Amino acid sequence: MINPIRRLICSLLTFLIILFDSPSAAAQSPAVLKFKSDLEKAPDPIAFLKSKKKKYKVDTVFVTSNKQFLMRADSLAYFGKLKKVYGPYADDSSLIQIIGKAPNTFYRVKHILLDTPKLNKTVVKKLADSILARVKRKETTIEDMARVYNTDGSGPSGGDLGWRARGTLIPVMENAILKKKKGDIIRVWSPYGLHLIQLTETPVQDVGFALLLKVKPY
């Protein structure tokens, strides 16, 4: 797992690369610049493109995290301004306009996964009781126990799953998380085992979806 500082650096670098990617010479031509300006000013971008007989495509982008961005599309969806037209980029001759945004709920949790395919359910339940009792007595922490038991890749980071958008975790986990408040620890059974989940931040509303309009200006 990427530590928080490295994750922040990666996000900032992605943002800068995507939004300030050097355009080609053709992208700076007066015709392209005018087309971008006209598209931004158009009250109805799709009607404008139809009037110009331009082929276009509208993609719905799901922002899975508001702290880490892996592609140009999700970074533009999150950071991009409504109506603004970006591009063309060196690797893509299309212009991209953000024509809509919608919110989603983001939450941050840490979890311990007690793997039932490897451990008997009765053993898992007793182990969970023991862990929670020790955490309550402050003899250990969720983070330390996650480093011992987790096999899902989150162990080295103490079970921290980072900021996640609603819809990215299995429903049984999300349903339990959204009923709790910061600091609460809950038990959730899933096909993967027993999860001991701690909500580490208060859930927030942020950009979760965006409509990206793609069109080739020439």
How many beta-strand segments?
7
Helix content: 25-40%
Please write the string of helix (H) and strand (E) elements.
HHHEHEEHHEHEEE
Query: Rough shape?
Result: elongated
What percent strand?
25-35%
Structural class estimated from helices and strands:
alpha+beta
Protein architecture, described:
The chain has 218 residues and is an alpha+beta fold. The chain is 34% helix and 28% strand. The protein has seven helices and seven strands; from the N terminus they run αααβαββααβαβββ. Strands 1, 2, 3, 4, 5, 6 and 7 form a seven-stranded antiparallel sheet that branches. The model has no long low-confidence stretch (mean pLDDT 87).
Explain the layout of strands and helices.
Elements: H1 4-19, H2 30-41, H3 45-51, E1 56-62, H4 72-79, E2 85-86, E3 95-115, H5 121-136, H6 142-149, E4 160-165, H7 171-177, E5 185-190, E6 193-199, E7 204-215
Antiparallel strand pairs: 1-7, 2-3, 3-4, 3-6, 3-7, 5-6
